[in-house]
Amino acid sequence: MNSAKAEGRLATVPVWDPYVRLFHWLLVVGMGLAWWTGTEGWMDLHYQIGLTVLGLVIFRLLWGLFGSPTARFRHFIKGPGAVLGYVRTFAARKPSHSFGHNPGGGLMVAVLLLVILIQDASGLFNSDDILFEGPFYARVPEAVSRLMGFIHAQFFNLVLVLVGLHVAVIALYLIWKRENLVRAMVTGRAQLPARLAEAATENGETRFASPFRALLCAVVAAAVPFAIYGLN
Q1: Which domain holds residue 118?
Q2: What is the rounded average pLDDT for all residues in the chain?
Q3: How many Cβ atoms from other residues are within 10 Å of residue 232's Cβ?
Q4: Is the pTM of this model over 0.85?
């Protein structure tokens, strides 16, 4: 096989572990339900869903430190130079073939996690001034609770903007770059140039972290919202 054929040959490799994929789709459902229940004024259910989302985000933060190679922050959070360098190549009409998140996608993940965490945590200080009070509403000065209420409302608008941008970029990848990012987040596998796939396999980056480690992170993540719920 000549070098040109070797360069163009694709191989299917594991990229996303089941825990990252489960987190991703549960977060999609959770944020949708949080929006719906908040809009309908079902505050008790809204609060419970918000605690669930908080647990999911805490799990993802832990998994970003202790999880599988592609899930770790050090794998996909890059400096400004790498992000700008990737943006310059975005117009090319060909798949990016990134093993995991590309630098731009990694930045989006980090920003989304941070914004959702702030938006979610601020709701714990919130009140609808009728029937519902968050567990920390009466534990802080009124000025702080008002500020948190403002943040909770405004950051959800920011979440919507970021989610819209995220979906638009995924669609653009599919249409312009002919790369199906959603499929990889469903199956956990992606097609990459053979040389990149072989290098990732040799470096151990295609091996997923153990279920025991995922369970431990999930227990720690669940303990936080359970403890908060017990404050009511």
Answers
A1: 13-229
A2: 90
A3: 9
A4: yes
